[in-house]
Write a structure and sequence with these properties.
single chain, 254 residues, alpha+beta, Nuclear Transport Factor 2, Chain: A, 6-stranded mixed β-sheet, 9 helices, 42% helix, rod-shaped
C-alpha cells in the first residue's frame, strides 16, 4: 500500500514539473524554464539528429530567441499522459508570424526534466484559395449570325394546317351526331377531295405528255358520238339505197 502511494505521488510530481515548464514558457520566462531542467538536460530530436545537444543553458538561450522573435508566442497543451517518470505532451505553439506543433516526451528525475524527445516542426500556412473570375461570353445579336451555325427554326402556329379526321366525321354522320362544327369538317373534307382530284389529273397529264412527246390529248365525250347501229346502217345498205344514191339510169338522165 505504501508503494502504491509513493508511486501515485511520483506521477503527480512528474506532471507538476512539466506544468511548471509550460507556465514558464507562457510567461516568456527563460530563466524559469532553465530552472525546470536538469543541468545535464539532453535535447533529442529524432527527426533532426544534427540538432541534438546537452545543457540547460542552451535551452534558455533558444527560448529567449523565440520570445524576442514572437512577442505573442504561447504554448497550448492539447493532450497529456504520464507513466512512472515519463510524460507525453501534445503541444501547439503560435505567435504572430509562425506556428509550431508536435509531441514532447519528457523524462523526469526528481523535480527536474532530465531529457526530452522532441517531434515538432513549423506548421505550413494554408494559402487562401484564389477566386477565379467568372468567364463571361458575349451573346451576339440576332442580326450578327455566326457563319456555319444553323439558326433555330421558328414555327408559327397559324401556318400549321389543321388535321382533318375524315373517318370520324363520316362516323358522326352515320350515328346522327351533328356537332356544331360539322360545317367546318365538311368544308375541310371538300378541300381534301379537290386536292386529291387535282393531284390525280396532274399525274394523268404528266403520263400523256411522256407517252406522246407532246401536250396531253383532250378527253372525248362518248355521249356525243352517233349510234352506228341505228344511223349508219350496214355495209350492204350503203350501196343499195334508192332514196339516197339513185339508180344508174337516173344518173344518166340527169
Amino acid at each position: 500500500m505504501a508503494l502504491l502511494k509513493r508511486k501515485r505521488i511520483g506521477l503527480n510530481d512528474a506532471m507538476s514539473v512539466v506544468t511548471r515548464f509550460v507556465n514558464a514558457c507562457n510567461r516568456h520566462d527563460a530563466d524559469g524554464i532553465a530552472a525546470c531542467l536538469h543541468p545535464d538536460f539532453d535535447s533529442i530530436q529524432p527527426m533532426y539528429p544534427s540538432r541534438n545537444f546537452r545543457g540547460a543553458n542552451q535551452v534558455r538561450r533558444n527560448w529567449q530567441a523565440i520570445f524576442d522573435a514572437e512577442p505573442g508566442f504561447r504554448l497550448t497543451v492539447l493532450r497529456s499522459a504520464s507513466a512512472d517518470d515519463t510524460v507525453w505532451l501534445e503541444l501547439h505553439g503560435a505567435g504572430d508570424d509562425a506556428e509550431v506543433a508536435g509531441i514532447f516526451v519528457m523524462g523526469i528525475q526528481g523535480d527536474r526534466i532530465r531529457w526530452a524527445r522532441i517531434y515538432s516542426a513549423l506548421v505550413d500556412p494554408v494559402p487562401a484559395p484564389e477566386e477565379q473570375p467568372a468567364v463571361l461570353r458575349e451573346v451576339p445579336p440576332l442580326d450578327d449570325a455566326v457563319p456555319g451555325e444553323v439558326a433555330e427554326a421558328v414555327v408559327e402556329q397559324d401556318l400549321i394546317a389543321p388535321v382533318v379526321d375524315i373517318e370520324r366525321s363520316a362516323r358522326r354522320r352515320r350515328d346522327g351526331d351533328e356537332p356544331a362544327g360539322q360545317a367546318a369538317d365538311e368544308a375541310a373534307e371538300r378541300i381534301v377531295e379537290e386536292e386529291a382530284v387535282a393531284d390525280t389529273q396532274g399525274v394523268a397529264d404528266a403520263a400523256d405528255t411522256a407517252d406522246d412527246g407532246g401536250p396531253p390529248t383532250e378527253a372525248v365525250d362518248m355521249a356525243s358520238l352517233p349510234d352506228l347501229d341505228d344511223d349508219a346502217g350496214g355495209p350492204d345498205d350503203a350501196g343499195s339505197s334508192d332514196d339516197d344514191t339513185g339508180s344508174d339510169d337516173d344518173a344518166g338522165d340527169a
